[in-house]
Each structure stands twice: as structure tokens, then as C-alpha cells.
Write a structure and sequence with these properties.
Blueprint lengths: L1 H12 L12 H7 L9 H13 L3 H13 L3 H4 L16 E4 L9 E4 L2 H14 L27 H14 L10 H12 L7 H8 L5 H7 L2 H21 L18 H17 L6 H19 L1
Antiparallel strand pairs: 1-2
């Protein structure tokens, strides 16, 4: 039947019948979009906050701050409700998510001071009083304009965020995942000495592995950039006829098996007990040297 219809159309109009284009799903549209990146400096974050406030986009401001602090996907963020308050107006400690959009998992997230401050600013600007509202009302409910009474849509937020980035002269492409990636990026930067930080962030973001997290929040790219930049510096020195000095392997870093470390600690503890009453410094130094010799032995 379709072939007959096409033949009729071709004889009548001299062209093939064009099929009605299929409406693209949200997932299909997402595949065609450019990758969004995290914001890696406080200046850009503050600039976007100020842009939203200065342009009367108060709900966008609130969603932006919540996205930065809660680290949730935009679908979950736009569905937050005012149940962050008890019925008597007292603040809850945690935001409870029953069913996350992508994973279906439950999550309790601390509501930090920055979120409470953003809510305070939002209420002062809009006259909204979440204590008096129905706790099942959505935070992202628009209070004015042509879409009053409707929840801020995913696309409206995304476009507003991109407009803010353009107005603030932010070079990298930003989108609805930017706040989530930014949260993970700065959470890692704020805990540089915590060996478990990537694991904690990976669990917080519900990622399948730490490598996924490093790539997602931009750390993999940052480390690759550093390596490529270092290679460029070396090559530039060669091109200019300079000698290059390769960095020596760090001598203060050692790898030791857990059981070996346990023995060293036990020895140090035992020596410490035996010489607890000693006041002479040399005895304590001898014990330290003994422990260090033991470490050298197990490293061979």
C-alpha cells in the first residue's frame, strides 16, 4: 500500500513521498548534543549565580545551587519537594530520595548550609514561604510568568544554563550535567589527602566504578592534559637545544605488604613499651633505627 501511495505521489508531483519524520526521544536528542563539562573554578560558579539573580531567574538560581550541593541528576533535582521542612517548620537534616530517576536507589543527602542559604535568598526574592506550603509541592514550581503553576522543565533549565554560560563568557560547553560533575570535581579537590575520596564520590554519585567517576568529573582529562603539557615542555627544550633533566624516582615512597607493615608496627609497639621508662634519647633513636632496618629488609 505504501509503495502504491509513493507511485501515485511521484506521478502527481514528480517526487518521492517523504516519510513523516519520527519525533526524537529525549535520549535521542541527548546523543546528538555536545558533552557538557564541569565548572573548575569558583569565579565561573559565582558568575552564573549572579546572572540568574540579576535576571530574575530565581528558580533557576535555586536549582543550580541545589544541583551543585546535592550532585543529583537534573530529573531528580527538578522533582525535589518542600518536604525538606517538617510540618512544624523545623529543618530536616537530610533530603530523602525514594527512587532515583536512573538507578531506582534510595538516598539520604545532607542538606548543607549553602542550600539553606539559597532557599533563604529564593524566598526573599519571590515571597515563597515553604513552611506554609504543602510539603508535597515541588520546589521547581514556577511562581510567575506565562508558565506559572508549572514545574520548570528540563529543557527550559538547560537552555537557561547555556545562556548563562554564554553571558558569563564561559568557554567550555555546560549543560544539565554540569552541576553534578562540578560537585564531584570539587569534592575531590577539597579532600586531596584522602585516599578514599574517589571511592566515596563514586558511591555518592552511584557510579559503577572509580574510573567512571574520574572520567565523569573531568579528573582523567585533567591528568592527561598535565602529562601532555609536561611532554610538550620536554620537547620544547629539545627543540631549543637544551639538556633535559629527567626527574628521579621519589626515594621517600615505599610499597609494603600489609603483613610486613603489621610486623613493623608490632615491633615498634613492643620497643616502645620496653623503653617507656627510659629518659635517654639514644635508646629511642636505636629503636627507630631498628624499625627502619626492618622496613629495608622487607623491601628487598
Amino acid at each position: 500500500m505504501l509503495q502504491n501511495l509513493n507511485n501515485y505521489y511521484k506521478q502527481t508531483y514528480g517526487a518521492d513521498l517523504r516519510p513523516v519524520p519520527k519525533k526524537k526521544s529525549r535520549k535521542d536528542v541527548a546523543k546528538t548534543r555536545k558533552k557538557s563539562y564541569n565548572l573548575n573554578n569558583g569565579t565561573d560558579i559565582k558568575a552564573i549565580m549572579d546572572y540568574f539573580l540579576d535576571n530574575g531567574k530565581y528558580i533557576h538560581y535555586l536549582i543550580f545551587v541545589m544541583g551543585l550541593n546535592f550532585g543529583r541528576r537534573i530529573g531528580d533535582t527538578l522533582n525535589f519537594k518542600w518536604n525538606m521542612f517538617y510540618k512544624d517548620g523545623q529543618k530536616r537534616k537530610y533530603l530523602h530520595l525514594n527512587n532515583e530517576e536512573k538507578t531506582g536507589k534510595e538516598k539520604d543527602i545532607l542538606i548543607n548550609d549553602a542550600v539553606w542559604k539559597a532557599i533563604e535568598v529564593y524566598c526573599a526574592k519571590t515571597g515563597c514561604n515553604p513552611i506554609d506550603t504543602n510539603k508535597d509541592d515541588f520546589v521547581a514550581l514556577q511562581l510567575s510568568g506565562t508558565h506559572k503553576g508549572k514545574i520548570l522543565s528540563y529543557e527550559a533549565y538547560r537552555l537557561a544554563l547555556k545562556a548563562a554560560g554564554k553571558a558569563c563568557n564561559i568557554e567550555q560547553n555546560i549543560g544539565s550535567h554540569t552541576t553534578r560533575k562540578t560537585m564531584g570535581y570539587f569534592a575531590k579537590k577539597l579532600h586531596p589527602t584522602d585516599e578514599f575520596s574517589t571511592s566515596i564520590i563514586s558511591g555518592f554519585l552511584n557510579h559503577s566504578s572509580e574510573s567512571v567517576t574520574r572520567n565523569y568529573i573531568g579528573l582523567s582529562q585533567e591528568m592527561e592534559d598535565e602529562y601532555v603539557s609536561d611532554m610538550g615542555d620536554m620537547m620544547l627544550s629539545l627543540m631549543e637545544g637544551k639538556e633535559i633533566a629527567m626527574p628521579e624516582r621519589a626515594t621517600d615512597l615505599v610499597t609494603i605488604e600489609y603483613d610486613d607493615l603489621r610486623q613493623v608496627v608490632q615491633l615498634a609497639y613492643q620497643c616502645g613499651r620496653e623503653s617507656a621508662s627510659e629518659t635517654g634519647l639514644q635508646r629511642h633513636l636505636d629503636n627507630i633505627n631498628c624499625a627502619m632496618e626492618m622496613i629495608r629488609d622487607v623491601m628487598k
